[in-house]
Amino acid sequence: MTNQKKKILAISGSTRMNSSNFKILEFISKNINKEFEVEIFEDLENIPHFNPDLDTENPPEAVTQFRNKIDAAAGVVICTPEYVFSLPGSLKNALEWCVSTTVFSSKKVGLITASASGEKGHEQLGLIMTTIEAGFTDQTQLLIQGIRGKLGTDGTITDEKTLHNLVAFIRNFEEEIEELN
Fold first, then answer.
1. Gene3D superfamilies, from UniProt (predicted)?
2. Cα separation of 114 and 122, whole Å?
C-alpha cells in the first residue's frame, strides 16, 4: 500500500498577481509537513457570478471543478485580504456557489485574513464558514494586520511574531487534519 499525500486546497481571496495572500499560501506550502500536498487555487476570477438559476444538477463547469477540488481535499486553507471592511467579491462569490452543497460540511479549514486591518473581513469569513458548516477552531484561524509591512518583496516573512504565529497556525492545521485518521 502506497503512502499517499493528503491534499490541501489553498485559496487566495486576492486575484492580484503575487499578492501578499498568495505569498502566505506559498509559505504554507513550503513549510507544511511533507505528508501534505498543497494546491494553490488561482482561478477565482473564472468562477461565474453566482446565480441560483444556474445552481442546478449541472452548474457551470468552473463551479463543478471548484467544488470537486474542495471535496477531494483533506483540508482547505483560505487566505484573504479585506476589501472595504468585507471579503473580496470574487471569494464571496466562490463561497456562495458552495452554500447549496455539502462540500464544506465538516471539512477541516484554516482561515487567514492578511490585510491592513482585516478585523471585519475575518469576522465575515468566520460567519460564512460557520454557515456552510466548515470545521475550524480558534487555533486554525489567524488575523495578520499590516501584512505589507511584514513581508519582504520575495515573500519572506520579516516580522518575527507573524512568522511564529504562521508556523503555529500550520502545526495546528496539520493536527486537525491528522485527527481525521
1. 3.40.50.360
2. 9
Q: For residue range 71-96, list pLDDT tens digits in order.
A: 999 999 999 999 999 999 999 999 99
Q: Is 93 exposed, middle or buried (0-12, 13-18, 19+ CB in 10 A)?
A: middle
Residue 113 and residue 125: Cα distance in Å, rounded?
8
d(CA 116, CA 81): 8
Q: Which neighbouring-strand residues pair with 143?
A: 113
- The domains of the chain are located at 6-178
pTM above 0.85, yes or no: yes
CATH superfamily for 6-178 is: Flavodoxin domain (3.40.50.360)
Dihedral class, residue 31 (left if φ above 0, else alpha if ψ from -120 to 50, else beta): alpha
